[in-house]
């Protein structure tokens, strides 16, 4: 099922996307309103209601403005160096341990929202990424529990300010500028997707920059959940960026950083696409 958060007729709503049709769940499901995290947390009880509403067509996808599926996740984290071709282009050794950084929840942006070129840097880069959303509260997950804890998947772009990212050994500030985590356009529930067999691509102004497949992930989404849950309780609505393949602008010679007016599109087969334009910050 494709679950989206969007604005329609001046209100934020949650709905199901089927083809080019949107079925409103808000108002039909008690206390849902525009809160995706509530739907995720209570999915076991609310799924049957959502299923019964499928097949309606309240409006078309062109009538709504899609928003980030979870507006302010409790946690946003990103993993670095998780595709072998990206590891090679970065000149880094293959990591034996997962390399994580925190992203501020103010980085969240909608799937078609402008992204900012900050005033303090010109080293703005793109990173096409598979994103997963946690569906259950979990700690100390084993392999089976970890897979079951993933609610669904989205398309993401881990926009990175390279000079801020690389000036110290800590990546988090360079990964936490406002608007630099666009994702969406909806959540495809985990039962409909094989996360380890998805072609992924990025384009800048229609030029292909990245082209790979999630089968090349070094650490899978389930392994990521298993690892992180050893340190912290993962909760419904938490959002995780799973790494980017080779082809980022900063690894080119000379580097090809984003400029105002550039359009960046990320596609993942089976999940859809996001497209964001660089605007002056």
Automatic annotation (TrEMBL):
Which InterPro entries does the UniProt entry name for this protein?
FAH, Fumarylacetoacetase-like_C, Fumarylacetoacetase_C_sf
Q: Is Metal-binding there in the keyword field?
A: yes
Q: Which GO terms describe its biological process?
A: carboxylic acid metabolic process
Please tell me whether the keyword Metal-binding is annotated for this protein. Answer: yes
Q: One GO molecular-function annotation for this sequence? A: isomerase activity
All residue ranges annotated as the Fumarylacetoacetase-like C-terminal domain in the record: 75-278
Specify one Pfam family: FAA_hydrolase
Instruction: State the source organism's domain of life.
Output: Bacteria
Q: Give the matching SUPFAM superfamilies.
A: FAH
Keywords from UniProt, A to Z, are: Metal-binding
**Which family does the entry's similarity section mention?**
Belongs to the FAH family.
Name of the protein = Fumarylacetoacetase-like C-terminal domain-containing protein
Species of the source: Croceicoccus pelagius
């Amino acid at each position: 099922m494709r679950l989206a958060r969007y604005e329609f007729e001046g209100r934020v709503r949650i709905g199901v996307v089927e083809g080019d049709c949107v079925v409103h769940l808000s108002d039909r499901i008690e206390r849902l309103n525009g809160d995706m995290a509530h739907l995720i947390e209570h999915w076991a009880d609310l799924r049957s209601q959502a299923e019964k509403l499928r097949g309606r067509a309240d409006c078309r996808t062109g009538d709504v403005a899609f928003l980030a599926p979870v507006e302010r996740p409790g946690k946003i984290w990103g993993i670095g160096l998780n595709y072998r071709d990206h590891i090679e282009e970065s000149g880094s050794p293959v990591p034996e341990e997962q390399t994580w950084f925190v992203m501020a929840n103010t980085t969240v942006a909608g799937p078609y929202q402008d992204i900012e070129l900050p005033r303090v840097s010109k080293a703005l880069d793109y990173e096409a990424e598979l994103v997963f959303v946690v569906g259950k509260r979990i700690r100390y997950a084993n392999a089976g529990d970890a897979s079951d804890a993933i609610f669904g998947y989205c398309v993401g772009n881990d926009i990175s300010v390279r000079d801020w990212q690389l000036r110290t050994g800590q990546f988090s500030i360079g990964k936490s500028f406002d608007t630099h985590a666009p994702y969406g356009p909806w959540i495809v529930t985990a039962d409909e997707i094989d996360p380890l067999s998805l072609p992924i691509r990025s384009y800048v102004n229609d030029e292909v920059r990245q082209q790979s497949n999630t089968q090349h992930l070094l650490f899978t989404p389930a392994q990521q959940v298993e690892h992180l849950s050893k340190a912290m309780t993962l909760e419904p609505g938490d959002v995780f960026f799973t790494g980017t393949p080779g082809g980022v602008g900063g690894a080119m010679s000379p580097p090809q950083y984003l400029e105002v007016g550039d359009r960046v599109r990320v596609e993942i087969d089976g999940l859809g696409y996001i497209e964001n334009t660089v605007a002056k910050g």
